[in-house]
Amino acid sequence: QELRPKSLDIKQEELGDMVEKEMASTSEAIEDAVRRIEEMMSQARNESSGVKLEVNERILNSCTDLMKAIRLLVMTSTNLQKEIVESGRGAATTQEFYAKNSRWTEGLISASKAVGWGATQLVESADRVVLHMGKYEELIVCSHEIAASTAQLVAASKVKAEKNSRNLGRLQECSRNVNEMAANVVASTKSGQEQIEEKDTMDFSGMSLIKLKKEEMETQVKVLELEKRLEGERVRLGELRKQHYALAGTYDAEEDGEAKPAPAPRRGILKKPPLAQKP
After folding, report:
1. DSSP H helical segments within 1-135, as ranges?
2. What is the distance between the alpha carbons of residues 78 and 91, in angstroms, rounded to a whole number?
3. Burial class (CB in 10 A: 0-12, 13-18, 19+), 149
4. Lowest mean pLDDT: which of 84-98, 121-135, 163-177?
5. Is residue 192 situated within a structural domain?
6. Is the CB of residue 106 less than 8 Å from the CB of residue 8?
7. CA distance between the termini of the chain
8. Is residue 92 situated within a structural domain?
């Protein structure tokens, strides 16, 4: 009992209930996301027109397709999870199976949470973009996060699934579909951003030579400021990732309850030993 993982402040027998609750919570989050996107669609049609309406509709339609793909993914994952439990528990109860495989169960819970969180963040970003209060880049980042969390869910399910499982094959197919729909969101977002920026392009034809020179100098200053800021943000991103990996490594070591073996050193090229020299 002392060697069992203690990552969650709950009893081991409650893990099974948590899996079902998280799967249900994820499904509810996706259903709510679909409803919110439909509301945003009707609001966009009432408050915008022309190019902006076309861009908003294309982005929201791609987000709706992505939500539908995620919903199917979660349903298939739930079916596969039930299949894994039924085939692996033997004479044990479902709760005993989850307690015995607590690390796998916790991974499944974490993956499900990540999918639901990604869907919620995508909808919030889309809402801000439609209201012209957000950034198109937020949608792109959210799409990448959803693709990553989907891969995490598939990996967690694949660990204990039978290789010839039909549900596993369906889950992998759903994962590919989610990735494709996420790529569509990225593509529609980028094309929409280009359309809006082209429409809002400044006209310099009426400016005097002095005004043009002043605008040119101000733009050069802004470019240098942005380049410096970009460099700083990249350094910050690198440090954040280092800290993330360090915490994740510490977490895994604490969960395992034992030290992980160090990776085997890479062997260098074997060199021919020197010939013995005559005295």
Report:
1. 15-47, 50-88, 94-100, 102-130
2. 22
3. buried
4. 84-98
5. yes
6. yes
7. 67
8. yes
Q: Which residue has the higher pLDDT, 267 or 115?
A: 115
CB contact burial 194-233 (16+ within 10 A = b; e otherwise): eeeeeeeeeeeeeeeeeeeeeeeeeeeeeeeeeeeeeeee
CATH number at residue 63: 1.20.1410.10
Q: Of 52, 67, 198, 51, whose CA–CA distance to 130 is shortest?
A: 52
**Res 43 pLDDT > 60:** yes
Domain that holds residue 160: 12-197
Is the pLDDT at 18 greater than 80? The verdict is no
| Residue 159 resides in a domain | yes
Q: Which residue has the higher pLDDT, 199 or 79?
A: 79
Assess contact for 244 and 237: CB atoms under 8 A: no
Whether the CA torsion 254, 256, 258, 264 is positive or negative: it is negative
Kindly state whether residue 250 falls inside one of the protein's structural domains: no
Mean pLDDT of all residues in 211-238? 91
**Number of structural domains the chain divides into:** 1
Q: Which residue has the tokens 């759903």?
A: 174
Confidence of residue 6 (pLDDT cuts 50, 70, 90): low
**What single-letter amino acid sits at 164?**
N
